[in-house]
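The data layer described in this paper is built around a simple, fixed record for each protein. Such a record has a labelled line for the sequence and another for the backbone structure tokens. For reference, a complete record is included directly beneath this paragraph.
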Amino acid sequence: MATKTTVPATPAIRKWVEEISSLTRPDEVVYCDGSEAEEQRLIRECLATGELIELNQEKLPGCYLHRSAPHDVARTEHLTFVCTDTEDEAGPNNNWMAPAAAVARLTPLFDGAMQGRTLFVVPFLMGPPGSRFTKVGIEITDSRYVVLNMRAMTRMGQVAIDELGDSDDFTRCLHSLGDLSPDRRFIMHFPQRNAVWSIGSGYGGNALLGKKCLALRLASWFGRQEGWLAEHMLILGLRSPHGTTHYVTGAFPSASGKTNLAMLVPPAAIPGWQAWTVGDDIAWLRPGTDGRLWAINPEAGFFGVVPGTSSRTNPSAFEMIRHHTIYTNVALRPDGTPWWEGHDDPPPAQAEDWQGRPWTPASSEKAAHPNSRFTT
């Protein structure tokens, strides 16, 4: 088994990677550094394997399309568990499984799961470098798509190794696509071990383990121990015509408008107001020594729902996703551009739907999956 690295991993990271490599038995181990050259290499590999489809680079530079397995298109909450020592510690809104039972259930599924694949070691930060709020994670994955998404969604690579230093205090995030079978799909959180295990899914919320897994579920545990909150909230900055700055949080469920509100453009009817996005999905909130409530967005990118996004509903996002974006499960027009329900353009006369099947406006199913996404 070959190992490629330009990243000076700590002994704790190397030891953990060796343990997981022995279990999953990949053909190769690659430590990710977060560089532009690495990103371009991964994109070339994804294009060669079909994991990505190149979009029209003249109209949408740096944009690509990914099609997931038809049965792997959303988070699977019924297969998501919080594995604390006691059931009470997991809280009333989570599924619970005893840690020993979870390890016993998943270890056979991970046994040899990466044979014929590459194991990628992905160091990442949730939060800005140098902040006392920031958490360090290392995700092991066998999915190039996950690596590219983590590069967009987090501060990934050498910056995380620098932040960690000699410490072994990092979240151990283990992910494998497995065989993508819903019958062998689990997302297990171990708060007391600072770890997440996920297998059987390549979908963002199940596979990008810095997002819901670390930044919400584990962070809720950390916050309870340390006196802060991890919330499913947007953070919006507002400045009045008089120069007064306000910050607003908003807690809405998925696909109900957090991103649109977070990217608010003040209407002309109220001149002089300015608005800016701090975050569109997750907020870490802490009381400050000054008695005020302070918040950060632990993420570094956007993983947004595409349908309904247009220059009318969200002009900022609509413009933002015109370059350097990974689209997942949208329709593909003959000119190599994506389309979805709610797009500025009318339905195309013909296209490929999110599964690559021929589609016309007369088709009975939607062209884009209702939970199709953009990552940027």
The first strand starts at residue 2 and ends at 4. The mean pLDDT is 96. The domain at 2-52+75-226 is CATH 3.40.449.10 (Phosphoenolpyruvate Carboxykinase; domain 1). The two ends are 33 Å apart (CA to CA).
